[in-house]
Design a protein that fits this description.
Layout: E1 27-35, E2 66-68, H1 82-91, E3 98-106, H2 116-128, E4 133-136, E5 140-142, H3 147-158, E6 162-166, E7 180-182, E8 191-197, E9 217-220, E10 222-226, E11 238-242, H4 244-261, H5 267-276, E12 279-280, E13 292-293, H6 296-310, E14 315-323, E15 344-348, E16 354-360, E17 363-373
Parallel strand pairs: 1-3, 1-4, 2-3, 4-6, 6-8, 8-9
Antiparallel strand pairs: 5-7, 10-11, 12-13, 14-17, 15-16
C-alpha cells in the first residue's frame, strides 16, 4: 500500500467504516487472510472473526481466530495494519444474512525476517480448516519459479478454494520475461490476479502493476479501513488507503458471497463468472487480460444462473419408499412431484446437494422411481 491517510476524492469516500453486523445468518463464508494479522480489538470486526475449536490432532491446540506462523503462536496481532486494511475491505457491504468468518493467518510484520515458508504453512492451514476463499495481498518477484508455493496453491485448488492475489504496487509489467510476480503469476485455475483501478479518473494508477496475460482484472483501489495501530478499537479510528492490496479483497468479497449463496459452484464456475462479466474499460485494454473491472451485480447473476443449471435440466432424481398406487403422483415441467402424503422425501441431486421437498410420497417397499426434471425444484409442493 503506497499511500496512507489519503481520502480518495473526499466526501462519501471518507465516511466511517461500517461495523459488520450479521442478522440471523443461515449460511457461512470463511475467508482466510494470509497477511500481517487482523486487529482483533477493533469493534468493526467483533462479529466477523472465525473461531477455531481445536481438535486433539490439531496443530493449534488453543482456541483462536487463526494462527501467527511468524511467531508460532495462537495469539494473532496486527502491529503493521496491512491485514486489517484487507479485512476492512472484505467487511464493507458484506451481506448481513451471511455469517462472515475471517480467518487471520499471520506470516509477516514490520521486521525483515519474513519467510515465504510461513505463508505456505498458512495456506495449508486455511485449506485444512475449511476456508472457502483465500486473500494474498502481498507478493515478491523472483527469477525462479516457487515450486513449494505452487504446491500449496495447488492443494487449495484440489480443495476447491479460490485465491485472490494482488498484482503489486511498483508499476511493473508482470508479463516480463525475467522476474515473475508471485503468487499472482502462478498459473492455476483458482488464482485470480487483481490490479488497481482509479475510479475517479477511469484509469489504472501509475503505481499499479499490470499484465495483458498475467493480470486477470482490475478493481477499485481505495477503502476506509481500521487504523494501522493496535491501540485503535473504535469505528472512527481509521485510515484511508489505496493499493492493489485493497483491489484483491474487493474481488474476493464477490467470490465469497457467490460461494456462500451458491455452494454448488466450483472454482471454474466462480472464475468464469468473475472474468466473463467485467465492465470493459478502454483504458485497461492491453493492461489486463479481460480489459475490465469487477462488475459485482452481473457476476452474481451469472453465479445464480450456473447454480440453477446444476439443479435443472436433465438432473436425475431417485426416490425410494413405499408405493400406494401409481395414481398418487404426477410429473410436469414445473413440478417434480405432487402428492398428499405423510413422510418427508429426501431427494439427492447429481450436484451432491440434498433437497427436502415440501411434498412427501409413499412407494412400494423396494420399488424405485427415476424422474428427470426440466426446470428447477422451485415452488414444488
Amino acid at each position: 500500500l503506497p499511500y496512507a491517510d489519503y481520502c480518495f476524492g473526499g466526501g462519501a469516500a471518507c465516511a466511517p467504516l461500517i461495523k459488520y453486523t450479521p442478522s440471523n445468518p443461515q449460511i457461512n463464508s470463511r475467508i482466510a487472510i494470509v497477511d500481517s494479522g487482523v486487529n482483533q480489538g477493533h469493534s468493526a470486526f467483533e462479529n466477523a472473526h472465525w473461531k477455531n475449536s481445536p481438535q486433539p490432532d490439531d496443530c493449534v491446540l488453543t482456541a483462536s481466530v487463526g494462527y501467527d506462523f511468524k511467531n508460532d503462536q495462537a495469539l494473532v496481532e496486527d502491529s503493521l495494519g496491512h491485514g486489517s486494511w484487507v479485512a476492512g475491505t472484505l467487511i464493507e457491504d458484506f451481506p448481513e444474512e451471511i455469517q462472515l468468518q475471517l480467518m487471520s493467518l499471520k506470516f509477516f510484520s514490520q521486521e525483515s525476517d519474513n519467510l515465504l515458508f510461513d505463508a505456505i504453512c498458512a495456506m495449508y492451514f486455511a485449506s485444512d480448516h475449511g476456508a472457502q476463499t483465500v486473500v494474498t495481498s502481498w507478493g515478491f518477484r523472483s527469477q525462479e519459479y516457487p515450486l513449494l508455493l505452487n504446491d500449496a496453491l495447488n492443494h487449495l485448488l484440489e480443495d476447491d478454494v479460490m485465491v485472490f492475489a494482488s498484482a503489486g504496487n511498483f508499476g511493473h509489467d508482470n508479463d516480463g520475461p525475467i522476474l515473475g510476480k508471485y503468487p499472482a503469476n502462478i498459473e492455476l485455475d483458482n488464482i485470480i490476479s487483481v490490479t488497481a483501478f482509479d475510479e475517479e479518473n477511469g484509469i489504472k494508477p501509475a503505481y499499479a502493476n499490470y499484465g495483458s496475460t498475467t493480470v486477470d482484472l482490475a478493481a477499485i483501489d481505495h477503502v476506509i479501513a481500521p487504523s494501522s495501530t493496535l491501540v485503535g478499537t473504535s469505528l472512527d479510528d481509521r485510515d484511508s488507503v489505496v493499493g492493489t492490496s485493497i483491489s484483491a479483497p474487493r474481488v474476493a468479497r464477490t467470490a465469497a458471497i457467490m460461494k456462500a449463496e451458491f455452494p454448488v459452484l466450483n472454482v471454474m464456475d466462480i472464475r468464469h463468472c468473475l472474468l466473463s462479466t467485467v465492465k470493459v474499460i478502454p483504458a485497461l485494454a492491453g493492461l489486463v487480460a479481460t480489459s475490465g473491472i469487477l462488475n459485482h451485480g452481473p457476476a452474481m447473476d451469472c453465479a445464480a444462473d450456473l447454480a440453477e443449471d446444476y439443479l435443472c435440466s436433465g438432473t436425475s432424481l431417485q426416490l425410494t419408499g413405499t408405493l400406494i398406487n401409481d395414481a398418487d403422483y404426477q410429473t410436469s415441467s414445473t413440478a417434480v412431484l405432487t402428492a398428499t402424503v405423510e413422510t418427508p422425501v429426501s431427494i439427492t441431486v447429481q450436484s451432491a446437494q440434498s433437497i427436502l421437498l415440501d411434498a412427501d410420497f409413499e412407494l412400494e417397499l423396494g420399488a424405485e422411481i427415476e424422474l428427470s426434471i426440466a426446470q428447477c425444484l422451485n415452488n414444488t409442493e
